[in-house]
């Protein structure tokens, strides 16, 4: 039995036993190479699940949909290691109760093979070491190094150009599991703290606010980067922020769910190089 | 006898239009994104794209537009109305779906009040559409009763010649005629073999959809909740839509001075309908998605006699969760009746 069939029947079993009220997985998309999020509430619907190497979205973003978990019931979800990492971060930030999430874990190997990950509860997955050793693809590192080698003026120009494409659709925010604020600061409009205009200032305000809020929290799933309809290289922003946090605090987000959020906690030996 | 514009004369045409005072805008690919931008020569153009990622709408209804500059003094308020430029523009290589979008939005911007910002740009622009030679999986113009060679919204329609050497010209308006006058010495007389139009399959039955939407019982249907379940509530489908036209007015500045701006807004956002009291009549994503579909295929039709969709398919093509108008309208078509 392939993993797709295995997970279809496991999802069906979870639903028919009543252990979970819903399973979030993937279904066929509008073209042969697309997959779309699929929500199954019955064992029959679970038969529509698809699981293959095209299932790259991080479905953990749906776990914090308004009201979904407020009844205390459990939800099943198909997650890759980056999704598991996201769940670790969400638990450590007290946004999820570990017992409410049943994980159908899988990994995509060599870009084509899908393997099941052992375990169902978040504590079953030890991804810490893997995450510590995770390196982005060479082209990302290369692009990041190119930007780091620029002068401050050149770098400003680079991001000004890139952010000038921004249409403020907030797709980056909406697909991000870490952007769970019920009211984002850009939507606070009495007064309007962050400009909704797509001029240079407004574009920087939005993109930098998001980058700052993700520092030490990003699961590197790449959802924002893929979602951006105007192809702003958001992965480079988040990669850099992750690097900063790691070098300052030796902290990698999402290693486990017991971590204390790095920017919301304090250690005696934290570096204080920024205090003059 | 029709006329032909040869590809190797395009640079001369651009130069002639520019010296006649026009800016020439065409599909361009810059910084990993395709949109309409100013070009100096034909090699700047990306004419082989199925469709640009951004629509031509951006050039008529910019995402942010300053309206008024104001200054509040002790005894008076000074304000200065900011008007859009009157630069004459040629849009070369517009796809039929995008050009149709302009024609669809005209009645909206000219309805109870003539939007000077829109019409100043419209009146100073000439639209040269190029019929499609290719389509992708997301194209659906035929489903909304348009076609890969629709002339709607165009002043000139070009049909690509089979051998790729140029385009056969069809003049559709006085404005188009005047534009071609400028380059008449560069055009050839003749009939070429034009490229066959791509087959764009009909994906839904728009009549059936409209009938279902018009039924008051459909408004509270469970259908909306099910179909919108995975919508993440971003605005990409609305901002990349060639006809979506909603905007918000924002004052930027301090207590004493500032600029009033017209910024794109989206019915996908919760803030779009948020009342000052905190009550939100569209407080779930399904009610927002329903609004988008109802607006395009019911309300707009009722007001202006036309659907507000050109079948470009961008909503699905660029949706992060593979939603879009096609899937929704297909599902409505297939609902048991």
Number of helices of chain A: 10
> Beta fraction of the residues of chain A?
5-15%
Helix content of chain B: 25-40%
**Category by helix and strand content of chain B:** alpha+beta
Spans where pLDDT lies below 50 across 5 or more residues of chain A: none
Q: How much helix is in the residues of chain A?
A: 25-40%
The count of β-strands of chain A is 5
Structural class call of chain A reads: alpha/beta
What's the count of strands of chain B?
12
Shape of chain A: globular
Order of helices and strands of chain B: EHEEEEEHHEEEHEHHHEEHHH
Query: With helices defined by DSSP (H or I, 4 residues minimum), what is the helix count of chain B?
Result: 10
Relevant terms:
heterodimer, A: 276 residues, alpha/beta, 2 domains, five-stranded mixed sheet, 10 helices, 5 strands, B: 337 residues, alpha+beta, eight-stranded mixed sheet, four-stranded antiparallel sheet, 22% strand, globular
């Amino acid at each position: 039995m392939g993993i797709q069939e295995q997970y279809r029947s496991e999802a069906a079993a979870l639903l028919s036993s009543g252990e979970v009220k819903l399973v979030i997985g993937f279904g066929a998309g509008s073209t042969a190479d697309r997959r779309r999020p699929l929500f199954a509430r019955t064992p029959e619907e679970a038969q529509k699940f698809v699981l293959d190497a095209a299932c790259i979205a991080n479905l953990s973003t749906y776990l914090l949909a308004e009201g979904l978990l407020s009844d205390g019931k459990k939800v099943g979800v198909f997650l890759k290691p980056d999704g598991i990492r996201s769940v670790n971060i969400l638990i450590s930030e007290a946004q999820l109760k570990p017992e409410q999430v049943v994980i159908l874990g899988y990994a995509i190997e060599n870009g084509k093979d899908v393997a099941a990950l052992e375990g169902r509860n978040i504590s079953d997955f030890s991804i810490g070491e893997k995450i510590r050793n995770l390196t982005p693809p060479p082209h990302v590192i290369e692009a990041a190094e190119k930007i780091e080698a620029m002068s401050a003026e050149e770098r400003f120009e680079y991001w000004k150009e890139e952010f000038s494409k921004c249409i403020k659709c907030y797709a980056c925010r909406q697909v991000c599991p870490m952007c769970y604020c019920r009211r984002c600061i850009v939507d606070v409009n009495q007064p309007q703290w962050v400009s909704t205009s797509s001029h240079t200032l407004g574009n920087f305000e939005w993109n930098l606010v998001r980058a700052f809020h993700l520092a030490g929290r990003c699961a590197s799933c790449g959802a924002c980067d893929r979602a951006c309809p105007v192809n702003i290289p958001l992965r480079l922003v988040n990669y850099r922020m992750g690097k900063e946090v790691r070098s300052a605090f030796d902290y990698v987000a999402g290693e486990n769910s017991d971590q204390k959020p790095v920017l919301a906690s304090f250690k005696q030996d934290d570096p204080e190089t920024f205090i003059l | 006898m029709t006329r032909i514009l040869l590809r190797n004369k395009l640079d001369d045409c651009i130069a002639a239009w520019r010296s006649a005072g026009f800016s020439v805008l065409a599909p361009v690919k810059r910084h990993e994104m395709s949109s309409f931008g100013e070009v100096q020569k034909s090699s700047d153009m990306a004419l082989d794209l199925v469709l640009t990622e951004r629509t031509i709408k951006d050039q008529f209804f910019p995402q942010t537009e300053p309206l008024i500059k104001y200054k509040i003094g002790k005894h008076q308020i000074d304000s200065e109305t900011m008007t859009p430029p009157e630069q004459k523009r040629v849009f070369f290589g517009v796809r039929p779906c995008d050009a149709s979008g302009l024609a669809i939005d005209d009645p909206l911007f000219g309805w109870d009040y003539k939007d000077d910002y829109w019409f100043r740009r419209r009146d100073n622009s000439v639209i040269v559409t190029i019929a499609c030679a290719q389509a992708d999986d997301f194209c659906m113009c035929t489903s909304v009763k348009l076609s890969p060679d629709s002339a709607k919204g165009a002043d000139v329609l070009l049909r690509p010649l089979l051998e790729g050497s140029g385009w056969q010209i069809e003049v559709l308006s006085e404005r188009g005629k005047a534009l071609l006058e400028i380059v008449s010495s560069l055009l050839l007389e003749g009939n070429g073999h034009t490229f066959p139009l791509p087959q764009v399959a009909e994906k839904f039955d728009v009549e059936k959809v409209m009938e279902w939407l018009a039924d008051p019982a459909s408004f509270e249907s469970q259908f909306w909740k099910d179909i919108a379940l995975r919508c993440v509530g971003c605005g990409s489908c609305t901002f990349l839509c060639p006809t979506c036209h909603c905007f918000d007015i924002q004052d930027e500045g301090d207590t004493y001075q500032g600029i009033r701006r017209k910024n794109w807004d989206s019915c996908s956002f919760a803030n779009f309908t948020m009342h000052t009291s905190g009550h939100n009549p569209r407080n779930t994503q399904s009610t927002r998605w329903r609004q988008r579909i109802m607006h395009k295929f019911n309300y707009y039709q009722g007001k202006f006699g036309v659907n507000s969709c050109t079948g470009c398919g961008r909503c699905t093509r660029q949706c992060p969760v593979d939603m879009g108008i096609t899937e929704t309208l297909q599902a409505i078509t297939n609902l048991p009746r």
